[in-house]
Amino acid sequence: MPEQQVYDPYRLIDDVEGLLIQRGHRPERLDGQTGDRVAGASRLLRGLGIDPFRAPGDALDLDGQLAYQSRVHGD
After folding, report:
1. CB 74, CB 66: distance < 8 Å
2. How many CB atoms are closer than 10 A to CB 12?
3. What domain of life does the native source organism fall in (predicted)?
4. What is the domain count for the chain?
5. Partners of 52 in the beta sheet?
6. Residues 6+ positions from 69 with CB-CB distance below 8 Å
7. Which pLDDT does position 4 carry in this prediction?
8. Contact indicator for 45, 15 with CB cutoff of 8 Å
């Protein structure tokens, strides 16, 4: 059985952003679109046979739930 391949979807987003800048584009991370970026990166990884995975320490909520508050309450 082949070894499971994993990759951090947030890292993929950073990688793609850097590639787009190298190619002369000006990507902009729009507020409130983080979920779309992560879902898209995760879907791409799965489509390539790689499991999206974040190290547990990287997944900690260190922003005081600001992202949660803005999504749920619009704050």
Report:
1. no
2. 19
3. Bacteria
4. 1
5. 7
6. 75
7. 87
8. no
Residue 11 within any structural domain of the chain: yes
Strands (E), the chain: 6-7, 51-52
Q: How far apart are CA 22 and CA 36, in angstroms?
A: 23
- Its domain, for residue 69, covers 6-73
| Residue 75 per-residue DSSP state | -
Whether residue 1 lies inside any domain: the answer is no
The pLDDT tens digits of the residues spanning 15-41 come to 999 999 999 999 999 988 988 999 999
pLDDT (tens digit per residue) in 36-75: 999 999 999 999 999 998 766 555 555 666 666 666 666 5
CA angle 41, 46, 52 (to 5 degrees): 60
Rounded Cα gap, residues 63 and 23, in angstroms: 32
